[in-house]
Amino acid sequence: SRRARGLLRSVDDEQRAVGRGDDQARAEGDRPGDAWLAELGVASAFIGRVGDDVWGRAAVEVLESAGVAVHAAADSSLPTGTCIVLVDAHGERSMVTDSGASAVISLGDLPTALFVPGAHLHLSGFSFLHDGAREAALTALRLAGEQGMTRSVDPGAMSVVTDVGSERLRG
């Protein structure tokens, strides 16, 4: 299925047991983790960039209908990012990704009003794959740290840690 790839997710400071992450959230009804959190009553926001296309509009609609505050710039020149997940008979996954518009998220796409004390910032490893998006992701980590926010990064692959560096990922 097509899914907008975003830069970050911001979650309020309310503590809830919500499972093991995005994969489990999708298994519980094929919805993104931030939508799942919002449906549990946790204030959450999505910051990203989508194509100005039917897939981008659908992704925004899914998140908004779940109660997620969506901050998604619509890009008129690039499509919404997609990820095709292939699973073999043994459960091993391979992914074919086209980052699309999310590859060019920029500092101007970051709503700084969301970086507040007590909130949590979660970044996807996809945020670090392209130069422009990487700059925005590292800036988001820095802004979150300056505000005393807790932060987490799901690198998704060891290559993200190797390419970016563990120190930089810590913010």
Structure in a nutshell:
By secondary structure, the protein is of the alpha/beta class. Helix content is 30%, strand content 25%.
Describe this structure in words.
30% of the residues lie in helices and 25% in strands. With 171 residues, it is an alpha/beta fold. The strands form 2 sheets. The chain has a 5-stranded mixed β-sheet, sandwiched between helices. The protein has a two-stranded antiparallel sheet with strand order 4-5. The protein is globular.
How many helices in DSSP terms?
A: 6
| Percent in strands | 25-35%
Computed structural class:
alpha/beta
Q: Given the C-alpha coordinates, what overall shape results?
A: globular
How are strands sequenced across the largest beta sheet?
3-2-1-6-7
pLDDT below 50 for ≥5 consecutive residues: which ranges? 1-29
Average pLDDT works out at 78
Number of strands: 7
Summarize the biggest pleated sheet: 5 strands, mixed
What's the gyration radius in Å?
15 Å
- Percent helix: 25-40%
> H/E order of the elements?
EHHEHEEEEHEHH
Give a topology summary.
Blueprint: E1 6-11, H1 22-27, H2 33-39, E2 44-51, H3 54-65, E3 69-75, E4 82-87, E5 93-98, E6 120-124, H4 131-146, E7 150-154, H5 158-164, H6 166-169
Parallel strand pairs: 2-3, 6-7
Antiparallel strand pairs: 1-2, 1-6, 4-5
Quick tags:
globular, 171 residues, disordered N terminus, two-stranded antiparallel sheet, alpha/beta, single chain
